[in-house]
Amino acid sequence: MARTAEKRGKDETKAAEKKVKATGKPAGGARGGITAPVTPSPELAEIVGKDDLPRSEVVSKVWDYIKKNDLQDAKDRRQINADDKLEKIFGKKSVSMFEMNKHLSKHLSAKKD
Description:
alpha+beta; MDM2; single chain; 5 helices
């Protein structure tokens, strides 16, 4: 007999509660990797703000800035032509969209607990 979604959810909740009780550690969650909060450098904070954000949100805000200021190359949309703010982050006038995350990671630090 197949379990219903409701029964499966209750079973998973019981298992999680049991694990928390056994280990004494709070239940985790999806707060690692791309969803973990990061702190932007002062240069990057000019674009995304100074608050801690998930890495995915930082990338999203940088793309919003690029599109708002029309910084994609007209002939090759994969190229980003940096203005003064982005040039501080990228270290050069033009980068590809694939290269952008490498440069962003240099301006992000893991949140200190």
